[in-house]
Amino acid sequence: AQSVAQPEDQVNVxxxxxxxxxxxxxxxxxxxxFWYVQYPNRGLQFLLKxxxxxxxxxxxxxxxxxxxxxxxxxxxxxxSALVSDSALYFCAVRDKGSQGNLxxxxxxxxSVKP
Amino acid sequence: DAGVIQSPRHEVTEMGQEVTLxxxxxxxxxxxxxxxxxxxxxxxxxxxxxNNVPIDDSGMPEDRFSAKMPNASFSTLKIQPSEPRDSxxxxxxSTLSGIHTEAFFGQGTRLTVV
Lengths: 114, 114
Hints:
Distance between the termini of chain B: 36 Å
Order of helices and strands of chain B: EEEEEEEEEEE
Oligomer: heterodimer
Strand content of chain B: over 45%
Structural class of chain B: mainly beta
Radius of gyration of chain B: 13 Å
Radius of gyration of chain A: 13 Å
Largest sheet of chain B: 7 strands, mixed
Helix content of chain A: under 10%
Structural class of chain A: mainly beta
Largest interface: A-B, 21 and 23 residues
Largest sheet of chain A: 6 strands, mixed
Shape of chain A: globular
Number of strands of chain A: 12
Order of helices and strands of chain A: EEEEEEEEEEEE
Number of helices of chain A: 0
Number of helices of chain B: 0
């Protein structure tokens, strides 16, 4: 079965420092991977996705993610964190091809301090 | 497009009462998902539809839960009778079916059963 794991419940970084939110995946076949962000009392918002092609994917709000097939990872990164980036981040994988749903990790809370 | 629209945003009900949550997907999207989010269990898929047909309802907790999608622009999630353990935030999401497509989420319905 397809799955993703987010090993960190919380990540703390100082404003201006680079941030990384980790995600590893387990899939049969090609992985289709997504990152979402959830701000307090809001729905999930799409950030970026990896389908095929370049291993470095750029998304919204200055975020990017690096797909690493050998390590089965898809870590979310940003060169310089903002306080406003503080939110809950979810990694997800598409299940079973075109009619499959999105399977989400448990989420990582990112806290950026001034 | 206004995005995925859910109603109500908040619902407080007494145990044993029937609760109906509503969702209007993005026009043109043909897949719709219902998720439940709690602190303990994270984000769980309850059911998803493709072209108005339920594809996988294995996440529906029990017979008290039912979902319908009578047409491409409307879906309901009903809980009858409701119990305190059903208290959660319920999200609806829609997408175009296909491996490349991301899902778009509504703002959610916060349900409290007292």
